[in-house]
Each structure stands twice: as C-alpha cells, then as structure tokens.
Amino acid sequence: DSNDDIEDVSLFDADDDVSRRSKKSKIRHPVASFFHLFFRVSAIVVYLLCELLTSSFIACMVTIILLLSCDFWAVKNVTGRLMVGLRWWNQVDDDGRSHWVFEARKVSAQGSKTSSEAESRIFWLGLITCPMIWVIFAFSALFSFKVKWLAVVVMGVVLQGANLYGYIRCKVGSRKNLTSMATNYLGKQFLRQVRFLGVWKPS
C-alpha cells in the first residue's frame, strides 16, 4: 500500500522523537495482528480439545486443515506484508521453470522501516512458536502410536513451516547470505573470545 510508505515529518526534534516512539510501539494493523494469531492458535486448540468436543475424527481433521489453510493464506498474502513488510511467492516463467521470489519493503527516506516493533514481535513470535508446537505434536503422535493423527500433524508442520522458511528467506536473503551471516557471526564471537583471553590472564 502506498500509505505504508508515507511518514509525517515533524518541525521539532522533540515531537519527531515522540512520534517515532509511538509508531514503534503502536499496533497499526490490529485486524491483521488478530488474524495472524487467530487461525494458527485455533488449529492448535482444536487439535488439543477435539477428542473432548466430538468423537468424529473426520470433523476434527477437516476443521484443523481448514484452519491451517486459512492461516497459510492469511500469513503468506496479508499479515506478512502489512505487519513486517515482507512477502514471498512462487512464479513460473515462460520456459516452465519455477522461481521463488522473496521481497522486503524498501527502507523509507528517513532510513527506518514503517512497521512497528509491537507488530514485528507479534508476527515473529507467532510465526516461530506455532511450527515448533506442531513438531512437538508430531513426535507425540509418533511415540504414542496415534497414526491417524500423523497426517494432520504433518500438514500443520508443512504449512506453517513453509511460511516460516519463506519469511526467514525474505528477512536474511538467499541461502548463501544466510551461510555468510552465520560464518561472520561465529568469526566475531571467536575474535571476541580471543581478545578477552588476551586481556585477561589467570594469575
């Protein structure tokens, strides 16, 4: 949206600092933030309580898969773009080859992104936590021999894991960039330890 790239410029530095802080803490898209968590949390709740609510496995399975599908569509197409300025998709070129496209919102003229810190926390917390819960469910269903639930749990892992993978690629770039970032981080940690040992020596 064009409105997301527009920011008011204050005449006074104090007012500018206040407005900048409020933009960071304010939830600018409450509906998107709600539905970002609603579908995925609802799918987990239905999975945990479905045996208490009904004895029909088919009804539970269909309900969970519908919630997971709605969550996948909403997160991929709506909440990621609005809450953190990221989106990803797959397109097929004229030669029939499939390409994955990862985009991030451009930095504004003032050098800061327009997404708020509160929305960013909500987005990444929901995006990372829920797939981990489905992985736990997968191991639980496997070790407790609930074979009929494995298909549902695997669907949860695949759909929510795909969104997690896509948005991590959007955030950090290509796989080569991800590898170089990890290498640079480990290198910095190693140099920091070397400097610390060079300054501090046991007596």
Automatic annotation (TrEMBL):
The keyword Endoplasmic reticulum does not apply. It comes from the Eukaryota. One of its GO terms (biological process) is vesicle-mediated transport. The keyword Membrane applies. Pfam families: DUF846. It is found in: Membrane. Belongs to the TVP23 family. This is Golgi apparatus membrane protein TVP23 homolog. The gene is Tvp23b.
